[in-house]
Amino acid sequence: GRIFGSEDACPSELRNASSEILKKCDGLPLAIITIASMLACQPKILEGQWEYIHNSLATRFATNSNYEDMMYILDLSYKNLPRHLKACFLYLGSYPEDHEIEKVELVRRWVAEGFVSNSSGQDVWDVAESYFNELVNRSMIQPLYHLPNLRIWGCRVHDMLLELVVKRCK
């Protein structure tokens, strides 16, 4: 649903890999959302990418530890981030668990830390905001909405993703 809009819209050549990836996620919502978001953010939908992810999960999941499997999926998603997003994502480790982070504050900090490049001639603030939106689209951060107009005003980091950030930073 996240990638194609509905299960029926999934191309037949991806159905088997899709089904196997879902099985490996073992019904864990964060795992499913993370993998789906990672695949949805690929510039092209290629059967080889899906097979690669399925094979990565299949060889890794010899243990039956949901925690270890979940951390592996999250780490795979981190490794799949474009280089320009990795530093921004890791910066979230400076915030405590369950902290509500204002979007404007976070974007300003990324710019101040030098994590945002305006080499394309775009305004650096617009680029930083696009980084924020990309992390939301990849389900790496949870958006916080202002209710009257449903605008995203901030974010929160899932506790398991925060744990990944801390491990990666160490």
Task: Give a structural overview.
With 170 residues, the chain is mainly α. Helices cover 58% and strands 8% of the residues. The protein contains eight helices and three strands, in the order H-H-H-H-H-E-H-H-E-E-H. The chain has helices at 12-24, 29-40, 47-60, 66-79, 83-91, 103-113, 124-137, 159-169; strands spanning 101-102, 142-146, 151-156. A hairpin with a 4-residue loop joins strand 2 (142-146) and strand 3. Helix 1 (12-24) runs parallel beside helix 3, helix 2 runs parallel beside helix 4 and helix 5 crosses helix 7. The termini are far apart.
Mean residue pLDDT? 84
CA-based shape = globular
| Main beta sheet | 3 strands, antiparallel
Strand order of the largest sheet: 1-3-2
Furnish the topology, listing elements before pairings.
Layout: H1 12-24, H2 29-40, H3 47-60, H4 66-79, H5 83-91, E1 101-102, H6 103-113, H7 124-137, E2 142-146, E3 151-156, H8 159-169
Antiparallel strand pairs: 1-3, 2-3
Helix pairs in contact: 1-3, 2-4, 5-7, 6-7
Summarize the structure.
The chain is mainly α and 170 residues long.
List the keywords.
single chain; mainly alpha; three-stranded antiparallel β-sheet; 8 helices; 8% strand
